[in-house]
Amino acid sequence: MAKITYIEHDGTEHVVDVKPGLTVMEGAVKNNIPGIDADCGGACACATCHVYVKEEWRDKTGTASAMEESMLDFAENVEANSRLSCQIKVTDELDGLVVSMPENQH
Amino acid sequence: MSKPRVVIVGAGHAGGSAAAFLRQYGFDGPIYLVGEEPLLPYQRPPLSKAWLKGEADADSLALKPAAWYAEAEVALRLGGVASEINRGAKTVTLASGEAIPYDFLILATGARARMLPIPGADLANVLALRTAADAEHLKSVLGAGKRLAIIGGGYVGLEAAASARALGAEAVVIERENRVLARVACPELSHFFQRYHGERGVTFELHAGVEAFVGEDGKVTGVKLADGRTVPCDAVLVGVGAHPNDELAKDCGLDCAGGVVVDLEARTSDPHIFAIGDVSHRPLPIYERQFRLESVPNALEQAKQAASAIAGRAGPTPEVPWFWSDQFDLKLQIAGLPFDADRIIVRGNPDTASFAVFHLKGDLIQAVEAVNAPPEFMAGKMLIARRTPVSLDKLADTTISMKEVAA
Ligand SMILES: Cc1cc2nc3c(=O)[nH]c(=O)nc-3n(C[C@H](O)[C@H](O)[C@H](O)COP(=O)(O)OP(=O)(O)OC[C@H]3O[C@@H](n4cnc5c(N)ncnc54)[C@H](O)[C@@H]3O)c2cc1C
Ligand code: FES
């Protein structure tokens, strides 16, 4: 299990255990964490699972694919540390990961 | 006064999401979730894609784990069929005889696969693909050396064809029209998808009427076409559209028009009853129309509308309808509907498998169909919502970025 902290836009923190193999998006949705709608269920088609990865975790979460990059290009409030959480696979390495959510996913 | 009670009929994508949004929005009254299928609410899109190919398991299909329903105090009636709504007494009666009172009722009964009323339709291995059980059955008949005949070249049919190929089975798509995706996409897209599938071993019988399914020992062995030929196969997938499960609503006198008619809050003609997802016939303000949509984003948007109305908060920002489909390594994303469009602009080259078709009414974008082209989809969706004119020359010119077109 990897402990992941999701921080809502208003600062509310949710710390949950996520099974390796799931994505960071699935970890949020299965725990009903508000702010990650994931309309497309992880198909990299909707950009409603946008998160900011805490700086010190950016290496471990890897880099976005070309497809993910171009989806992010048009999402709202994108920053250098923006990722689509459905494209981040949870591994034991990510135990302790902290991500936060933008104000609005649409 | 006791807290209002919500009963949700249909534990699919829309119904399951409505329960979750109600709790997210702070609704703390009792919630009952009644579902005919014996499973917790799950996502259907992977059934024809990742799941069918063996790339996703049952856990990843489920919207929420079982523990969530207990924690959130959502009372489940799985394997329970709602058979009657009494609007006067405000109760829903299940086939088991249980009558559940409601203050608010959400109908989320979805749609069912349309079957073909032709000889042989009841042979074994003549299948539909709507539920997890259907998908399980389909998967069991696919594999190397098997041949799947797919009736209907819509999204589900083409996705199943691609997945069948990935599993080493042969796939033949039989379509009445002279192109695939005839009902839902423009000719440019149809031709592209047909060619792409053809290059990957899917065969097509277009402009072909299906007369009967033929079989041996009660099991299907072929599809008899109107021109007299028989296409041999080990299984048939019938993918010719879906019919809304609006009978409950009709029987209790709610306004229906090929789906339960609702407003922008997803409320039906009875203020205590909502209808969401595939079963609803909803307003599309951008297009000044009512329409029935079959997509996950639609199910989620309406689940939010109903949950917001019940929880007493402002509804979500209206969305441009959109849809996606995965076939082989293609990602198709569609935004909007091509109502009243008078021209199309193709951006990019279909031969490169990355292009988009824009449907315009004058210089307003009504819809975009994007193949491996997320910027076109994302910017297109935004422009459809904005309702401002675009430069047609810029839109057609791939040396100009979509950022600039949308600026
Ligand atoms: C194979 C497949 C692939 C798809 N792919 C995509 C895709 O890529 N992208 C996309 O956007 N959409 C896709 N869709 C469409 C999407 O899954 C539907 O739009 C969505 O599931 C609609 O949700 P719903 O809750 O309205 O209906 P459903 O999910 O169908 O749920 C309705 C539920 O209500 C139950 N029910 C019906 N009547 C009763 C009753 N009287 N009592 C109790 N329960 C009842 C049914 O058993 C069912 O479980 C796909 C659909 C299928 C079948
Ligand atoms: S869930 Fe849709 S892009 Fe991540």
UniProtKB/TrEMBL annotation, chain A:
<dbReference type="GO" id="GO:0046872">
    <property type="term" value="F:metal ion binding"/>
</dbReference>
<dbReference type="InterPro" id="IPR001055">
    <property type="entry name" value="Adrenodoxin-like"/>
</dbReference>
<keyword id="KW-0479">Metal-binding</keyword>
<dbReference type="InterPro" id="IPR018298">
    <property type="entry name" value="Adrenodoxin_Fe-S_BS"/>
</dbReference>
<dbReference type="InterPro" id="IPR001041">
    <property type="entry name" value="2Fe-2S_ferredoxin-type"/>
</dbReference>
<dbReference type="GO" id="GO:0051537">
    <property type="term" value="F:2 iron, 2 sulfur cluster binding"/>
</dbReference>
<dbReference type="InterPro" id="IPR036010">
    <property type="entry name" value="2Fe-2S_ferredoxin-like_sf"/>
</dbReference>
<keyword id="KW-0411">Iron-sulfur</keyword>
<dbReference type="InterPro" id="IPR012675">
    <property type="entry name" value="Beta-grasp_dom_sf"/>
</dbReference>
<protein>
    <submittedName>
        <fullName>2Fe-2S iron-sulfur cluster-binding protein</fullName>
    </submittedName>
</protein>
<comment type="similarity">
    <text>Belongs to the adrenodoxin/putidaredoxin family.</text>
</comment>
<keyword id="KW-0408">Iron</keyword>
<dbReference type="GO" id="GO:0140647">
    <property type="term" value="P:P450-containing electron transport chain"/>
</dbReference>
<feature type="domain" description="2Fe-2S ferredoxin-type">
    <location>
        <begin position="2"/>
        <end position="105"/>
    </location>
</feature>
<keyword id="KW-0001">2Fe-2S</keyword>
<dbReference type="Pfam" id="PF00111">
    <property type="entry name" value="Fer2"/>
</dbReference>
<dbReference type="GO" id="GO:0009055">
    <property type="term" value="F:electron transfer activity"/>
</dbReference>
Automatic annotation (TrEMBL), chain B:
<feature type="domain" description="FAD/NAD(P)-binding">
    <location>
        <begin position="5"/>
        <end position="303"/>
    </location>
</feature>
<dbReference type="InterPro" id="IPR023753">
    <property type="entry name" value="FAD/NAD-binding_dom"/>
</dbReference>
<dbReference type="InterPro" id="IPR050446">
    <property type="entry name" value="FAD-oxidoreductase/Apoptosis"/>
</dbReference>
<dbReference type="InterPro" id="IPR028202">
    <property type="entry name" value="Reductase_C"/>
</dbReference>
<dbReference type="Pfam" id="PF14759">
    <property type="entry name" value="Reductase_C"/>
</dbReference>
<dbReference type="GO" id="GO:0005737">
    <property type="term" value="C:cytoplasm"/>
</dbReference>
<feature type="domain" description="Reductase C-terminal">
    <location>
        <begin position="322"/>
        <end position="405"/>
    </location>
</feature>
<dbReference type="InterPro" id="IPR036188">
    <property type="entry name" value="FAD/NAD-bd_sf"/>
</dbReference>
<dbReference type="GO" id="GO:0016651">
    <property type="term" value="F:oxidoreductase activity, acting on NAD(P)H"/>
</dbReference>
<dbReference type="InterPro" id="IPR016156">
    <property type="entry name" value="FAD/NAD-linked_Rdtase_dimer_sf"/>
</dbReference>
<keyword id="KW-0560">Oxidoreductase</keyword>
<keyword id="KW-0274">FAD</keyword>
<keyword id="KW-0285">Flavoprotein</keyword>
<dbReference type="Pfam" id="PF07992">
    <property type="entry name" value="Pyr_redox_2"/>
</dbReference>
<protein>
    <submittedName>
        <fullName>FAD-dependent oxidoreductase</fullName>
    </submittedName>
</protein>
